[in-house]
Write a structure and sequence with these properties.
By secondary structure, the chain is an alpha/beta fold. The chain is built from eight helices and eight strands, in the order βαβαβαβαββαβαβαα. Strands 1-8-7-6-5-4-3-2 form an eight-stranded parallel β-sheet. β3, α3 and β4 form a beta-alpha-beta unit.
């Protein structure tokens, strides 16, 4: 089943509880939280205190995406604050195997993220260990960017490796997802779809998620 995962980067931070509650009632199971440090990416966002506040507000799984230069130092704090899933960038982890195992030992699912210019082959030796792989379909740092089509090739490559090797990691995408490109994303093999502006920019967010879920269901049985 394809999951639509709203990204709170596009939400109204002054009204987060109000923004999230209807989505939870509407069947969303996970929220995506982008953490940016102003070093690895040219933007600053949130820290563990906001995750702790969200944990008190919602029962949804919290998918924390660490766009930071020192994930080994800060991942435990986000997990302690309530993160259920934590993803780190391959580009920031010189000891990626150890970082993944650390996140899992702290009690969260561990994901690895690839920037648009980073090839899938860099994950060859950890795909049997990770819980999920997140493909960036924009350059990280800001919401509302245009989708980079070559991300689909990475998804297809990961899906092929997954099936041929009998692995169970999930494939996630983040960046520029719209109702117009969603079907192609799902047909390529993506299972978790992060959407920020497309969800929170809609007048009726619950209806938009339902629309996206319908598109995903229609595309899920089609192989490319």
């Amino acid at each position: 089943m394809v999951e639509i995962i709203p990204s709170i980067l596009a939400a109204d931070f002054a009204r987060l509880a109000e923004e999230i509650a209807p989505l939870e009632r509407g069947g969303v199971s996970m929220l995506h939280i982008d953490v940016m440090d102003g070093h690895f990416v040219p933007n600053l966002t949130v820290g563990p205190p906001l995750v702790a506040c969200l944990r008190k507000t919602t029962k949804l799984a919290l998918d924390v995406h660490l766009m930071i230069t020192d994930p080994d130092r800060y991942a435990p704090a986000f997990i302690q604050a309530g993160a259920d899933l934590v993803s780190v960038h391959q580009e920031t982890c010189p000891h990626l195997d150890r970082t993944i195992r650390m996140i899992q030992s702290e009690g969260a699912k561990a994901g690895v993220v690839l920037n648009p210019a980073t090839p899938v082959g860099t994950l060859e030796n950890v795909l049997d260990l990770v819980d999920y792989v997140l493909i960036m379909s924009v350059n990280p740092g800001f919401g509302g960017q245009k989708f980079i089509p070559r991300a689909l090739d990475k998804i297809r490559a990961l899906d092929r490796i997954k099936r041929e090797s009998g692995l169970e990691f999930r494939i996630e995408i983040d960046g520029g997802v719209t109702t117009g490109n969603l079907a192609g994303i799902v047909r390529a093999g993506c299972e978790w779809v992060v959407a920020g502006v497309t969800v929170f920019g809609a007048p009726d967010r619950v209806a938009r998620v339902a629309e996206m879920q319908g598109i995903a269901r229609g595309a899920a049985s089609v192989c490319v």
